[in-house]
Specification:
Helices cover 46% and strands 14% of the residues. The chain has eleven helices and eight strands. It has an eight-stranded mixed β-sheet, with helices on both faces. β4, α4 and β5 form a beta-alpha-beta unit. α1 crosses α2 and α7 packs across α9. The longest helix is centred in the first third of the chain and has 20 residues. Bound molecules: acetoacetyl-coenzyme A. The site of acetoacetyl-coenzyme A (CAA) has 16 residues, from α2 and α9.
Length: 278
């Protein structure tokens, strides 16, 4: 099997890695050479971590040798599966999906890792919309057990079955969602993050105590403010914007405290500062 992953950011490199860990040949495409360089470093360090704790038996370099990289969409070629993980902007996704469509076979699966954009909309950019599906992975991809499968009105049963088998091959579990804003995961997660930010904004408590409440009181691995920093505050705001626009419900309205952080370049862990300093 050959899998092409478009976008080598946090999600794209994690997706490429987990397929390579299962013996699959992967082409990882990103138009920014720096993104490819960073992706290779991230995957190496993740694989070494997994090897150290005995979660993988193969040498990390052997796993990495299955991943070929390219820096142009025109380098895309025939694959069994394409997964796009480019930034959450419809126009960027459109360019990627049209490039995939120009080389995909009529039986290739075309998946999007979008966390909030309509799968029905994205499928309209694909030459074979019956083969188009959402495959929403979670960060860090090598660790998180879930893939949210999202079907559009035109996703075929055959495509759905193939994607379920792919998730199982990756030793992950799936849930199936219809194409509704935020699917299952972000529809539920975003109001939680939103409420935590409003609690901080309204001076109810400190950021540390808000996070501690959810970590120790509810057994969440990370508090909501820490988690928003981990996801990326720009990504969190963009997802909330989509949900707020689509549902028109204030539960999803990005709080001012979040907007101010993003506008001042504090994007969470990746920029060195968000609600916390790293
Ligand atoms: N690659 C490989 N292994 C990794 C890893 C990576 N990138 N990151 C962490 N690990 C491993 C560690 O080696 C460690 O393994 P052991 O327990 O076997 O030693 C384990 O994962 C835990 O890691 P750490 O001890 O370093 O740190 P931690 O206990 O704080 O766990 C975490 C880190 C797994 C990220 C945990 O904090 C967690 O689960 N947080 C919540 C993550 C989450 O909610 N993700 C979803 C975000 S939402 C999203 O992605 C989608 C969206 O649309 C917004």
């Amino acid at each position: 099997m050959k899998v092409s992953v478009i976008g080598a950011g946090t999600m794209g490199n994690g997706i490429a890695q987990v397929f390579a860990q299962k013996g699959t040949d992967v082409i990882l495409v990103d138009t920014f050479p720096d993104a490819i360089k960073k992706a290779l470093e991230t995957m190496k360090s993740s694989l070494e971590k997994l090897q150290r704790k005995g979660a993988i038996r193969e040498d990390p370099n052997i796993v990495l040798s299955r991943i070929k990289t390219e820096t142009s969409l025109s380098a895309l070629s025939e694959s069994d599966v394409y997964i796009e993980a480019v930034p959450e902007k419809p126009e960027i996704k459109k360019t990627a999906i049209e490039a995939i469509s120009s080389v995909a076979r009529p039986d290739s699966i075309v998946a999007s890792n979008t966390s909030s954009i309509s799968i029905n909309l994205l499928s309209s950019y694909c030459k074979f919309p019956q083969n188009f599906v959402g495959m929403h992975f979670f960060n860090p991809v090598p660790v998180m057990k879930l893939v949210e499968i999202v079907k559009s009105n035109r996703t075929s049963e055959e495509t759905l079955n193939k994607v379920m088998s792919l998730v199982t091959l990756l030793d992950k579990q799936y849930v199936v969602s219809s194409d509704y804003p935020g699917f299952i995961s972000n529809r539920i997660l975003m109001p939680l993050l939103n409420e935590a930010m409003l609690a901080l904004e309204q001076g109810i408590s400190t950021k540390e105590d808000i996070d501690k409440t959810m970590k120790l009181g509810m057994n969440h691995p990370m508090g909501p403010l820490e988690l928003a920093d981990f996801i990326g505050l720009d990504v969190t705001r963009d997802i909330m914007e989509v949900l707020y626009r689509e549902f028109g419900d204030h539960r999803y309205k990005p709080p001012i405290i979040l907007r101010n952080l993003v506008n001042s370049g504090k994007l969470g862990r990746k920029s060195g500062e968000g609600f916390y300093k790293y």
